[in-house]
């Protein structure tokens, strides 16, 4: 049996050898194919996880932007409401109306002729509106004792105290329109102080008399402010305040998107580089490996991030003033000639609002791109230290007042990191993409204010569900239905507080629904990786960079080569054209090409 088997193998050893070789080769080939399949599966799985991680980080970043805007907006709103106190002007108009009614009753009781100063909307009021309406509404006050000071006192402000006091006592009964119990009581309290100059030094008496005369002159001027002039101030103040808040909200939304997405991009890159950095935990080494800090290399340290985010203080406390001044000039030109008795249709109102926006933003795309928004969002270099000091983040720190807070940090990499962040932010603000997205945000904000709130509250226009906006009936209603200007002003005055303080904020929600805002954030998050990749001198000794030879014209033609066990490459994936950070055995996709595709569609659709 064994001999027969041996003879069979001897006779067939060549076919047996060939068969064994074929089987071995097949096994090796099968193992190779299975290994490649497993590698491809692991690669796809890691890329899918990396893409999902990137998408999750990006979406979380946008949610952080929303909460940050809502946290910062009340600060700017408080400053704007304090600067333009429209409610104070409304109170003054009510007081003037009450004084006019009281004066009419007093005139009838004395059988004297009616006074032209107490009548509303006279010719003199219209003339005085053109000359005195330049006084800002926030600078107009009406002290309680103003009603007791007659206009004739302004002519006596240069006389001695005793003569002025006697003149006031003689003229007070002759002015029934300003006579009231409170005013008389106020004069009785002031007269003894004026009639006792001999109790003081002559120099002090003269100074006191001059000060009191100036105070009376200012009070008399405020008291003589007519109702028409107050209405003019109310018109400018209410419209300017609402429009300024819309502009501030849009600018704050874009600035926050830029800041947080720049920091999010740097944080993600820092985490990827940290994964590619070799681990020296095994064994004891005399080399100093503690200095290898990818977060410090890419500027994602806490101190730099905090100071960079602090620069939003400029818009909240200084920049909005520039916006308010630009808006006020445009509002005076568009709405200044109107009076409280003017009737406006919705189309006329929309046309005036559009003229204001053209004067503030620019009438053409070229003018809008040239609009200077950078001074409202970021300070000049000489004011950067002031921003950091005023923000309060340096409280409790031992900081030399003469040192530059932007360029003199304890960390050697912090100045360059912060400077690079500020410069990149300024470049983005001055880019055409910024002006394009800002215009869309303002369209959404003014649409929510005018097309919804004013259209429904003042004009009672049908909603889009009730009637198509482009129907002939709707166009007829928009052009024929008119309302008084005060009705529009009341809605704008009320909505000013809603724009800045409501939660949830429907104006901010309307702006966030703009798809171009999401695309703009994606471009900021996924662009300019070349600037983030540092040179070899700034990197840890375990990571070095060299340009690839195969594709030197690639947008990201930078490849880090590590002498250690792990390396990192930044290349373009030829299959999906996405930016890939690759190790020898895997790749991590960090830029989804859909981000850039979305923005390309946005740009092509807007042109």
TrEMBL record:
<keyword id="KW-1133">Transmembrane helix</keyword>
<dbReference type="InterPro" id="IPR006966">
    <property type="entry name" value="Peroxin-3"/>
</dbReference>
<protein>
    <recommendedName>
        <fullName>Peroxin-3</fullName>
    </recommendedName>
</protein>
<keyword id="KW-0812">Transmembrane</keyword>
<dbReference type="GO" id="GO:0045046">
    <property type="term" value="P:protein import into peroxisome membrane"/>
</dbReference>
<dbReference type="Pfam" id="PF04882">
    <property type="entry name" value="Peroxin-3"/>
</dbReference>
<keyword id="KW-0472">Membrane</keyword>
<feature type="compositionally biased region" description="Polar residues">
    <location>
        <begin position="128"/>
        <end position="148"/>
    </location>
</feature>
<dbReference type="GO" id="GO:0005778">
    <property type="term" value="C:peroxisomal membrane"/>
</dbReference>
<dbReference type="GO" id="GO:0030674">
    <property type="term" value="F:protein-macromolecule adaptor activity"/>
</dbReference>
<feature type="transmembrane region" description="Helical">
    <location>
        <begin position="16"/>
        <end position="34"/>
    </location>
</feature>
<feature type="region of interest" description="Disordered">
    <location>
        <begin position="107"/>
        <end position="185"/>
    </location>
</feature>
């Amino acid at each position: 049996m064994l001999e027969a088997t041996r003879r069979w193998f001897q006779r067939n050893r060549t076919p047996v050898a060939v068969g064994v070789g074929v089987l071995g080769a097949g096994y090796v080939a099968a193992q190779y194919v299975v290994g490649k399949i497993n590698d491809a599966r692991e690669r796809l799985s890691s890329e899918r996880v990396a893409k999902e991680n990137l998408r999750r980080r990006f979406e979380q970043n946008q949610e952080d932007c929303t909460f940050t805007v809502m946290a910062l907006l009340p600060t700017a709103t408080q400053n704007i409401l304090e600067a333009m106190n429209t409610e104070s002007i409304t109170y003054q108009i009510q007081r003037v109306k009450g004084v006019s009614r009281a004066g009419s009753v007093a005139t009838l009781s004395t059988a004297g002729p009616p006074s032209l100063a107490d009548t509303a909307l006279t010719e003199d009021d219209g003339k005085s509106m053109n000359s005195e309406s330049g006084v800002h509404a926030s600078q107009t006050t009406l002290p309680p004792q103003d009603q007791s000071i007659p206009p004739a006192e302004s002519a006596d402000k240069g006389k001695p105290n005793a003569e002025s006091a006697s003149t006031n006592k003689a003229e007070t009964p002759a002015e029934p329109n300003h006579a009231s119990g409170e005013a008389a009581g106020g004069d009785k309290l002031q007269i003894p102080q004026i009639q006792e100059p001999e109790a003081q030094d002559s120099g002090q008496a003269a100074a006191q008399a001059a000060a009191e005369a100036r105070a009376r002159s200012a009070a008399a001027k405020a008291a003589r402010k007519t109702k028409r002039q107050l209405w003019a101030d109310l018109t400018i103040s209410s419209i300017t305040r609402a429009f300024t808040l819309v502009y501030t909200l849009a600018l704050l939304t874009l600035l926050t998107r830029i800041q947080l997405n720049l920091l999010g991009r740097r944080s993600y890159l820092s985490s990827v580089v940290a994964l590619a950095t070799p681990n020296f935990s095994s064994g004891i080494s005399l080399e100093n490996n503690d200095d290898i800090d990818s977060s410090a290399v890419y500027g994602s340290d806490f101190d730099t991030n905090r100071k960079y985010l602090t620069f939003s203080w400029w818009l909240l406390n200084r920049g909005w003033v520039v916006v308010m001044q630009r808006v006020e000039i445009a509002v005076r030109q568009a709405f200044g000639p109107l009076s409280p008795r003017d009737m406006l249709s919705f189309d006329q109102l929309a046309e005036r609002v559009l003229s204001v926006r053209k004067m503030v933003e620019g009438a053409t795309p070229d003018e809008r791109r040239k609009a200077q928004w950078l001074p409202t969002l970021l300070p000049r270099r000489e004011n950067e230290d002031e921003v950091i000091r005023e923000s309060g983040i340096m409280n409790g720190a031992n900081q030399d007042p003469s040192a530059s807070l932007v360029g003199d940090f304890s960390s050697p990499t912090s100045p360059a990191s912060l400077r690079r962040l500020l410069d990149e932010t300024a470049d983005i603000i001055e880019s055409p993409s910024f002006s394009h997205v800002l215009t869309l945000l303002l369209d959404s904000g003014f649409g929510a204010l005018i097309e919804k709130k004013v259209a429904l509250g003042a004009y009672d226009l049908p909603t889009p569900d009730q009637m198509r906006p482009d129907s002939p009936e709707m166009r007829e209603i928009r052009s024929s239905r008119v309302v008084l200007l005060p009705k529009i002003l009341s809605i704008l005055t009320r909505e000013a507080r809603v724009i800045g303080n409501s939660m949830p904020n429907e104006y901010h929600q309307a702006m966030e629904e703009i798809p171009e805002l999401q695309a703009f954030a994606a471009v900021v998050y996924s662009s300019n990786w070349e600037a983030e990749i540092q040179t070899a001198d700034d990197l840890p000794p375990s990571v070095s960079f060299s340009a690839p030879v195969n594709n030197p014209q690639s947008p990201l033609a930078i490849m880090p080569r590590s002498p250690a066990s792990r390396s990192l490459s930044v290349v373009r994936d030829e299959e999906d054209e996405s930016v890939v950070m690759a190790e020898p055995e895997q790749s991590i996709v960090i830029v989804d090409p859909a981000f850039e595709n979305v923005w390309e569609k946005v740009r092509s659709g807007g042109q």
